[in-house]
Amino acid sequence: MTPSPRIVGASWQTRALGTVWSSCQKGAHAAGLLSCDSRMGLGKSLQALALLWAVLSNNLLRKAGSAIIVCPSSLCGNWRAEVKKWLGDKRLKPTVIESGKEKILSQIREFRDFASRRLLVISYDQLRRHVQLVDDVCDLLICDEGHRLRSQGTATSKTLGQMRCRRRILLSGTPLQNDLEELFHCGRFVRPDLFAPQSPGYMAPKAAAWAVQCAREPLATPEEKALGQQVTRELEQKTLQFLLRRTMEMVNFNLPPRVEIVLRLRLAPVQVAAYQALLNDLHCGPHSMAKALKCGCQGW
């Protein structure tokens, strides 16, 4: 793999790209990855685009296969800008779904019918509605803000979970590891083979969470502690196969020190009048206070 010089970042990002690249080469049923960071701005989008370009430029997808980035509707335009920023105008032209119903259908047909259209950017809601139009051509699914799929019971989670595509990447800035059930559902989305009922060491998510919680109690019995430790080890072994987690400590050395500036401002005359009215009417009850606030807001 020869990554574009435009998308080669810090060494820890390059190593992360190597991890997702290896994951994507393992096969159609073993390429899921969960990238979970504790904060924004740690390079999830850049790593996803680097992987996307590496996969497309090296023809790792099947002949008619394309990639889909699904995200909240408010972020579709952001992904268009990110693609342009890191890959330019000529390398990859995404089909971005942002407008009305009739245009959406024509855009999806264009994405399906033209070989040059290898990337679709679409919202979760629109993909859920039109999944039957793109299910057979999607060979790489990238889910931004993927913690939306942490509940198995939602219509979106069910629909996306039933897609044929098995190369799935879930990006999230929410620390899913704080809730074992949420981590279980997201893990099952990207790697259903590891969390299927017939998989070795399978335990229902509620039962696994309860076993770990009981083991941490001060009055836990030796049997409960042993079971909790066993469940924890099995979960660690599974998550190590697909979980890539980054924290702020990875990039703090590249950031300038934070500077906090406190500015003290004088109240405007109308604000002074409002506060004074409140002080004068405190003994008159809440109705007078509400009236004083209303007058102050109107004056402002």
From TrEMBL:
Residues 40-193 form the Helicase ATP-binding domain. SUPFAM superfamilies: P-loop containing nucleoside triphosphate hydrolases (SSF52540). It holds the Pfam family SNF2-rel_dom. PROSITE patterns: HELICASE_ATP_BIND_1. This is Protein CHROMATIN REMODELING 25 (AtCHR25) (DNA repair and recombination protein RAD54) (AtRAD54).
